[in-house]
Design a protein that fits this description.
Layout lengths: L1 H58 L3 E5 L7 E10 L2 E16 L5 E11 L5 E4 L8 E3 L6 E3 L15 E2 L4 E12 L13 E10 L4 E11 L1 H5 L12
Parallel strand pairs: 2-11
Antiparallel strand pairs: 1-3, 2-3, 3-9, 4-5, 4-8, 4-10, 6-7, 10-11
C-alpha cells in the first residue's frame, strides 16, 4: 500500500506542475502585452498633447494695440468735483482712440480693454470703460458730420464690433472716469500737461496686449464738442 500511495502521489505531482507552469506563462505573457499597450497608449497621448500644443501656439490670436493719431485723439480732462458719502471727490475723464490688430490665424473677440493710470503716490488705478455715444463733429459749414466708432457700443453709424478676424483690425474710442478723494497723492500724475497711461486689451482666449499712451490735457468744453454732456454720462 505505501508503494501504491507513493506512486499515485508522484503521478499527481507530475501532472499538476506543468499545468501550473502553463498558467503562469499565460499570465506572464498577458501582463507583458498589457504593459506594452499601456506604454504605447501613454506615448500616443503624449505625442497627441504635443501636437495640440503646437497647433494652439501656431493658431492662437496675436493681438497688438496702438493709439490712433497719438497727438490728436488721446485726451484727459478735469470734470466738476463730485461727492461720495458726503465726501468731496475729484473727477477726471480719459478719452482714448485705439486700434487693435489680430496678427494670428484665429479669429478672436475682445472681452476687456482697461486703462491703467499712474498716481502721484506711485500707485496704479485700473479703470473699466464707460459707454458713450459716438463722438461727432460737423464737417465745416455743411450739414454733414464725422462720427467715430466706440469700442463695444453699437451707435447710429458704427456697429462697435469687438470681433477681430485673423489678419484684420478694429478701432474705436474708449472712455474712462477716475474719481478720487482725500490726499492729492491719489491724483493722476501730470507733467507739462501730459499723463502717461497704459492700455490693456484681452481676447476671450486670455491673451492680452499692452501699449503706453500719452494723454494731452484738454478742457471739458473742448471735449464736450465731441461728446456733449460727457461729464454727466457716468452718473446716469
Amino acid at each position: 500500500m505505501p508503494g501504491v500511495f507513493y506512486q499515485r502521489s508522484s503521478i499527481t505531482t507530475i501532472s499538476i506542475v506543468p499545468a501550473a507552469l502553463s498558467v503562469y506563462n499565460i499570465y506572464t505573457v498577458s501582463d507583458g502585452i498589457a504593459t506594452g499597450l499601456a506604454i504605447a497608449l501613454s506615448l500616443l497621448a503624449f505625442i497627441n498633447g504635443i501636437m495640440l500644443l503646437r497647433s494652439y501656439l501656431r493658431d492662437r490670436p496675436i493681438l497688438e494695440v496702438t493709439p490712433v493719431h497719438p497727438d490728436a485723439y488721446q485726451w484727459f480732462f478735469r470734470m466738476p468735483d463730485g461727492n461720495f458719502n458726503n465726501i468731496p471727490t475729484r473727477r477726471y475723464g480719459f478719452l482714448i482712440y485705439i486700434d487693435i490688430k489680430n496678427k494670428g490665424i484665429r479669429d478672436v473677440a475682445l472681452c476687456e480693454w482697461h486703462l491703467i493710470i499712474n498716481t502721484r503716490a506711485r500707485k496704479q488705478i485700473e479703470l473699466k470703460p464707460i459707454t458713450i455715444p459716438e463722438p461727432q463733429l460737423p464737417l465745416g459749414q455743411t450739414p454733414n458730420i464725422k462720427a467715430w466708432p466706440v469700442l463695444g457700443t453699437k451707435g447710429v453709424y458704427h456697429q462697435g464690433d469687438t470681433m477681430i478676424k485673423s489678419g484684420d483690425s478694429i478701432g474705436g474710442f474708449a472712455y474712462y472716469v477716475a474719481e478720487v478723494y482725500g490726499s492729492d497723492d491719489w491724483n493722476p500724475t501730470v507733467e507739462n500737461g501730459k499723463a502717461t497711461t497704459r492700455i490693456r486689451v484681452r481676447g476671450v482666449f486670455g491673451k492680452a496686449a499692452y501699449a503706453s499712451i500719452t494723454l494731452t490735457q484738454k478742457t471739458l468744453d473742448e471735449v464736450s464738442k465731441l461728446i456733449p454732456n460727457i461729464d454727466q454720462i457716468d452718473k446716469i
